Structure formats: C-alpha cells, structure tokens
User: Which sequence fits this backbone?
DNA sequence: TTATGATTGTGAAAAATAGAACAAACATTG
DNA sequence: CAATGTTTGTTCTATTTTTCACAATCATAA
C-alpha cells in the first residue's frame, strides 16, 4: 500500500504517525482532566501500550515539546498537538447514509468531546429523510452537493451500502470534500488529492478470526 | 508498534497482509456473484486500488493459486481464501455494550453475509438488559464470563465507554476470548496472546482533519 | 509446431518504519 | 557547587514492508 504522506517543513510524515499523535492527544486530555501536569514519555507510553521511543520519535517530526530531564507539560503538549492536528477549531463533517451505523455515529458522544461535529446527514431513503437524529434533520441525498458546498464541509463519512459507496464518494468529492472515512465494505477509487480512510468491520473481524484459528493449532 | 505476526509454515505473515487478503476475498465474492470466472492480478488490483504485485505477493505467502499466463479462477481462489481465513465455518462473537454503536453492529447485515455472527450481547445498563435487538436478547454483563465460556466464543467486540473498556477486555480474556475488536476510544493493555484491533472513530476523523488542514495551505 | 504475448510467482533491491544507543539538558541531592 | 540520576531529542542501525525485475509457464495464433 502506498501510504499517503504529508509535507511538514521539509519532512514527510505518514498518516500512521498522525493517527498515533491523535491517540496521544486523546490520552493527554484524560491526564489533563485528572490533574496531571507533567508526564514523561515513559509513563505515557506505558499508558498507551507503545514504546517510549516511538512516542518521542513521533513528536520529533514536529519539533521538541519536552524538557530534558523532566518530561512534558501536559497542558502545553495538549495545546500543541491540538493545534498541530487542527483539532482546535471544531471540525465539521457530512455523513451519507443515516442507517443504523450512520445514526450511531451521528449520536456518538465522544466525537463532540473531541471537537468533531456532524454538520449534515443525508439519505436517499424516503423513510429516513426528515427524521430527526440527535437534533439533526436527515436531508435528502439529492441536496448533498449543494449543502456540502454551502457549508464548506471538507470531511465526509460514508455509511451507505457497498454498491452506493463509490458514487456517493464521487459526489462528495465534486462538492469539495477532500477527506473521506469509508465504512462501506468496498474500496473507493477517487482522485489522488482526496484521502480515503477505510474501516471495514467485516475485514477487521475476519482478520481476527484468522488469528483465532491460528491460536487453535 | 510491534505488529503481531503469525506463523504460516515457516514464514511469518503480518496481520496487515491478512486484512488485505480479507478484502481480496470480499471483492472476489462480488466478482463470483457477477459471474466472473477468471481474473488477473492486474484487473483485480485495479478494482482494489492497489498494485498487482502486492496482490500476488500477499497470496504468495500461502502458496501458488493462479495459473501463469491466465490468471486466477475466481471460484477456486475464493474457496482457498475462505479456508485460509477460517471464514468457512461461521465465526461467532460476543459484544459488550449494546448502546447505539453496539446495536448498529448487532444489526449490521454485512456481517451475516460474511459468515460472521453475533452470538451474545451484554450490557450493564438495566434499561438495555432484556432488550431484543434483531432477535438477540441483551444479557446482563455480569453473566458475560459464564456465557462466553459456555458458548466457547473466541472473539469479542467492545462498544462500551472508554473508562469501562479495559475491565471488560480483561473479563473477556479471562473467559477465553483471544481476539478483541475495540471501538472504545482508549488503548487496551492485555496479555500478549490476546490480539486487540483498535478502531477509534475519533482518531480516524482527527487524522483526516489534519489532512484537510494540510491541503488548505 | 513455433513464435508471441500474457500472466504468475519470487528473489533481490529499495523504501519505509521501528528500535537501539547515546549525547545534551535539566533537576536533585549531598 | 559538583556529582548523580533522569529524560529528551536524534543519529545510526535493524527490521519490515513494498516495489522492481525477470524467469517460468501457459494460451493463442501463425
């Protein structure tokens, strides 16, 4: 897989690193809420289940954040990572497919805590259009392009059936969406400049099932 | 991250490979249903959005499946991959946390099509216990160990809030679960022999938000 | 049958990722 | 203040993953 990379100064950082940074931020916020003010890479790494070297290495792509001999100021590091990841200003996203999974994501409380907010939801099913989920009215899928463009949304989440996913993704892209989180069990082929992240629950479980089978022998 | 590996004959195969194999199988089934009998690595790779070499290389860990100069018999390859991944016999799993996301997964129709079946669901919330979701009655979380052990379940899916995830995972492990799919936004630290796959929707979107921010500059 | 074109499977090279090792910087203690 | 212990940031090394290159095999057509 040719993993997408992003320019940072002169270095290129893989999205695996970015995801880890996001999980660091997640746990740092917990520490912050618990009143912890300073943390070392060692103790945080233990909390995260990774090596302390990986933590420091990941941070090093974006500069020095700690104090040698001391550790990291939780507040400061949280703020820096928040800024780095663009998690400071509330990130809105559009969701296509207000079925079971889509509805669950709309109502997913953690997202709000992480400053991520569903701004519009769409469905082509007449029975779902107009339905109010957690205060958000499901709109007609035919209005997706207009709304996404008007609201200036950049992230799309796809929860439609596999056979509809490709077309939905293309329409999102044409409306200005440049990053897509795809839950549909199918690959999405789209312009290089649009980033697609796939989460296929079936694939995840099937991979685990292989692992289970191996352990049995 | 030290990615888990599994022994195959004398070779070790990463779980990334296994996940890709699962996605190959997914698309092969679609081809099979569409009446395609033979496919080349090139055309399938195009469908999957990867390189044809990666497809062949991934297969090569488990032996030769194709015919040189011709390609792959869709039926045969589907069967072999199904056997390889253990996707032949129905894989049952236990789910903890019958909230919005948990319920959505219980009702996720694709899972059934992939021979993956929810066998038991648990929650500690009195209001959810006894609730019937898609024919399955949500059981009391305190009975989890007993049920999981009795039914011989090996895969657990965690959809509980972050602060409960660690404990739930440990209890699952103690009951014989050896592979966990964790949707809770937290890391799970557990015995090495239990494989944990994390899907943190917040992290996924936050990583995309970084990508969006980069594209803007 | 023989030449040609297509496609697989794989060893070797390249790229990317993770890990080890250590100097530099800081705090603390005597 | 000096010595000691801690922790970061980074260079260098090892490992893993991906990609390249090409021989081997098969079908087809002349």
Assistant:
């Amino acid at each position: 897989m040719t993993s997408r990379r992003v320019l940072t100064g002169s270095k290129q950082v893989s999205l695996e690193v970015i995801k880890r940074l996001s999980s660091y931020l997640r746990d740092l916020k917990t520490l912050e809420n618990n009143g912890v003010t300073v943390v070392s890479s060692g103790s945080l790494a233990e909390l995260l289940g990774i090596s302390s070297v990986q933590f420091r290495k990941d941070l090093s792509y974006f500069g020095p954040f700690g104090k040698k001999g001391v550790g990291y100021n939780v507040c400061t590091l949280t703020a820096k990572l928040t800024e780095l990841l663009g998690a400071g200003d509330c990130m809105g996203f559009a969701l296509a497919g207000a079925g079971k999974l889509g509805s669950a994501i709309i109502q997913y409380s953690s997202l709000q805590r992480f400053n991520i907010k569903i701004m519009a939801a769409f469905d082509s099913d007449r029975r779902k259009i107009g339905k109010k989920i957690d205060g958000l009215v499901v709109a007609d899928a035919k209005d997706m392009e207009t709304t996404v463009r008007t609201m200036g949304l950049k992230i799309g989440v796809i929860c439609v059936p596999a056979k509809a996913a490709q077309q939905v993704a293309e329409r999102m892209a044409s409306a200005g969406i440049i990053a897509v989180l795809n839950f549909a069990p199918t690959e999405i082929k789209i312009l290089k400049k649009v980033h697609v992240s796939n989460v296929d629950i079936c694939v995840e479980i099937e991979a685990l099932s292989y692992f289970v089978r191996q352990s049995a022998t």
About this structure: Residues 3, 14, 16-17, 51, 53-54, 57, 67-70 of chain A lie near DNA strand C (CB under 10 Å from a C1'). The longest strand of chain A covers residues 116-123. Residues 15-33 of chain A form the longest helix (19 residues). Chain A touches chain B through 69 residues (CB under 8 Å).
